Amino acid sequence: MSNRLQILVPEALDGEVRKAAERARLPVGAWVRRAIEEKLDRQGAGLPPDPLAALGELAAPTGDIETMLAEIEAGRS
Question: What is the number of domains present in the chain?
Answer without folding.
Answer: 1
